[in-house]
Design goal:
The protein is α/β, with parallel strands linked by helices. It has 13 helices and 14 strands. The protein has two domains: 230 residues, Type I PLP-dependent aspartate aminotransferase-like (Major domain) (Aspartate Aminotransferase, domain 2, 3-Layer(aba) Sandwich), CATH 3.40.640.10; 122 residues, Aspartate Aminotransferase, domain 1 (Alpha-Beta Complex), CATH 3.90.1150. 39% of the residues lie in helices and 14% in strands. Bound molecules: pyridoxal-5'-phosphate (PLP). It comes from Duganella qianjiadongensis.
């Protein structure tokens, strides 16, 4: 038996003919940056998310960064981020010259705890970046209420949550802006790097469009010192092929999650994901928790089952953030989560039988 964590080749092979046709169309067009393919994908993706606009950028990190930058975040500003997230959430803040201010999660959902945000707000706070971690939406209503009260800008980090719903509304329309990644392994993945910002704020969208293209609205005329961060025509064309299949892929992930929830229920010491009734997650990751995480991962690997730890080290303990001066124990929830989480295989081409096999293996390992 061999069950990979995610079979990316199979994910893309399922659309091979359509992807090849899109590649040929771009090849034959002779136009590779900022053309019809990108504007058509932007329109389709905005419509999917229920936002007025999508702006294609080079990757998910840049999507968060450019949204913050366009909102005027800069040196001296503080931005509230989850203490447990992929480091890109923090890096986007740092690249603006601002300071990431970590806030601990709700332990049951791993997402930013709205009740803890107020205590972290200072006169310098300018923005909040809630992350829809593992594909489950953060509790956005109280976050937006706090933001309105303190005049803060909110950008959703939706890199793991394409299509997820909060009280029935899709991510990408819940904050002032939202940042998506199209890294190959994400729920909507390109065959390379890619990202997008969605927003219904026309002025903000215009500033992001300018920033992604050298600060220029008219070629060779530069209004602001911008960046080069564009989603290219080829990735846009490939993403346009995959977008109509996103919901089906998410449905298969949901079915796998249901098998895991059923087959793994009641194992002592094993914590399963919990879903509030207002959340419709898209299961980018199916993350369990166990005190003997490393033993479990090793035993699964010996049986040919792939797992990954998302993520082994909390951002505040990374050497990259040594300058912030945090130490072990400063964010105990995040630290415990990073010590104990394990992501099980899940993906649009994985079968329910495979999920049942993974669950049976876990049951066996943890009974021993
Ligand atoms: C993947 C990811 C990003 C960054 O996206 P890239 O396209 O890899 O730059 C940001 N935040 C989270 C939560 C992610 O999972």
């Amino acid at each position: 038996m061999s069950i990979p964590f995610l079979d990316l080749k199979a994910v893309n092979q399922a659309h091979a003919a359509e992807l090849e046709a899109a590649f040929k169309r771009v090849l034959d067009s002779g136009w590779y940056i900022l053309g019809n393919e990108t504007s058509q994908f932007e329109a389709a993706f905005a419509s999917y998310c229920g936002a007025d606009q999508a702006i294609g950028v080079a990757n998910g990190l840049d999507a968060i960064f450019l949204a913050l930058k366009a909102a005027g975040i800069g040196p001296g500003d503080e931005v509230i981020v989850p203490s447990n997230t992929f480091i890109a959430t923090w890096l986007a803040v740092s690249h603006c010259g601002a300071t990431p201010v970590p806030v601990e999660p709700v332990e049951a959902t791993y997402n930013l705890d709205p009740a803890r945000i107020a205590a972290a707000i200072t006169p310098r706070t300018r923005a909040i970046v809630p992350v829809h971690l593992y594909g489950q939406p953060a509790d956005m209503a109280p976050i937006m209420a706090l933001a309105a009260q303190h005049k803060l800008f909110v950008v959703e980090d939706a890199a793991q949550a394409h299509g997820a719903r909060y009280h029935g509304r899709r991510t990408g329309q819940l904050g002032h802006a939202a940042a998506f990644s199209f890294y190959p392994g994400k729920n909507l993945g390109a065959l390379g790097d890619g990202g997008a910002v969605t927003t219904s704020d026309a002025a903000l969208a215009e500033r992001i469009r300018t920033f992604r293209n050298y600060g220029s609205k008219v070629k060779y005329y530069n209004d602001v010192p911008g960046y080069n961060s564009r989603l290219d025509e080829l990735q846009s064309a490939l993403l346009a092929v995959k977008l109509p299949h996103l919901d089906a892929g998410n449905a298969q992930r949901r079915a796998i999650a249901a098998v895991y929830a059923r087959e793994l229920a009641g194992i002592p010491g094993l914590t399963l994901p919990q879903v509030p009734d207002w959340a419709e997650p898209v299961w980018h990751l199916y993350v369990v928790r166990h005190a003997q995480r490393d033993r479990l991962a090793k035993a699964l690997a010996e049986r040919g089952i792939g797992t990954i730890v998302h993520y082994p080290v909390a951002p505040h303990l990374q050497p990259a953030y040594a300058e912030l001066g945090y130490k072990e124990g400063d964010f105990p929830l995040a630290e415990a989560i990073h010590r104990e989480v394990l992501s099980l295989p899940i993906g649009p081409t994985m079968t329910l039988e495979q999920a049942a096999e993974v669950a049976a293996a876990i049951r066996q390992i943890l009974a021993a």
